[in-house]
Amino acid sequence: MHSLETTYIGLTLKNPIVVSSSGLTSSVSKIVAMEQAGAGAVVLKSLFEEQILQEAGSLEISHDYPEASDYIRAYTKANSVGEYLSLIKEAKAKVSIPVIASINCFSSSEWIGFARQIEAAGADALEVNVFFLPVDNNKPGSFYEQTYLELAEKLRSAIKIPIVFKLGNHFTNVLWIIRELYFRKINGVVLFNRFYEPDIDINKIKMVSSEVFSHASDLRSSLRWVALSANKVPNMSIAASTGIHTGEAVIKMLLAGASATQVCSAVYKGGPGAITKMVEILGKWMDEQGYKTIDEFRGKLSYANISDPAAYERSQFMRYFSNME
């Protein structure tokens, strides 16, 4: 008899399939449905700093009463956070799987107080969804990286629950930023986040959003860096994300060294049943391979454990495929 149990950021999950932060986890009823479908944990839809500040700043308030303006803007922030805290509390009362809160922020100033409230509301962990688009050509890459690290330090000093950073793949050295987060006692990282990407409608001649959902082929980039990170920063929990559409993809990420896998697009497309199918495929594969636990094969094909680790380092297409016709 196999066990799908896994440990992620110090939390025990009944299986490694985590529903990522999205509209799929925006209400208690949806979270309950994810648990019933077999999810090992959920990450709540993010509390967006940008949205809160935009709502507060867009209010029509008389400039004759600055104290009233400050009060109303503060109330708007508190109300948004209050609704989120209620979601945490209600979800924790309804499900037995870990409930991970999520904040989406672009500064390190607003979130310390919110993080304390999130912890007090009973969240099992906090996932930090942060991205600073480096558009200022007067600032070096290190400026933006330092902002991540400062936020990590402030959050870690404020709360005791596990903290996860959901990273993009834009860093010059992903392994360096993961190591630096580990030194600041961050418990895990998610590789990788999907950010808004623009497109152009040539008929209407306007900017539009590109496709929201991931594709199964997007797995490749995450797979490489999960395998490298699991070896280079072995004490950091790694969650794989982007391109995980099947149970087979879950298995690949576990073999590469992931502690957990985050799913989103596959559930939007296939409904909660997509989770059930992934769990079934993982269990069946383990039985066929003779594995009783995930720890028996986790990382078996990570950077450190394969005969040709350079396979994860190759980046020059023509060098390896120049003979193909």
From TrEMBL:
InterPro entries: Aldolase_TIM, DHO_dehydrogenase, Dihydroorotate_DH_1_2, Dihydroorotate_DH_cat
Pathway annotation: Pyrimidine metabolism; UMP biosynthesis via de novo pathway
Superkingdom of origin: Bacteria
Keyword Oxidoreductase part of the UniProt annotation: yes
GO molecular function, one term: dihydroorotate dehydrogenase activity
Keywords: Flavoprotein, FMN, Oxidoreductase, Pyrimidine biosynthesis
GO annotation, biological process: 'de novo' pyrimidine nucleobase biosynthetic process; 'de novo' UMP biosynthetic process
GO cellular component: cytoplasm
Cofactor dependence: FMN
Record-annotated Dihydroorotate dehydrogenase catalytic domain positions: 4-284
UniProt xrefs under SUPFAM superfamilies: FMN-linked oxidoreductases (SSF51395)
Classification via PANTHER family: DIHYDROOROTATE DEHYDROGENASE (QUINONE), MITOCHONDRIAL-RELATED (PTHR48109), SLL0744 PROTEIN (PTHR48109:SF3)
Designated name of the protein: Dihydroorotate dehydrogenase (Fumarate)
Species of origin: Williamwhitmania taraxaci
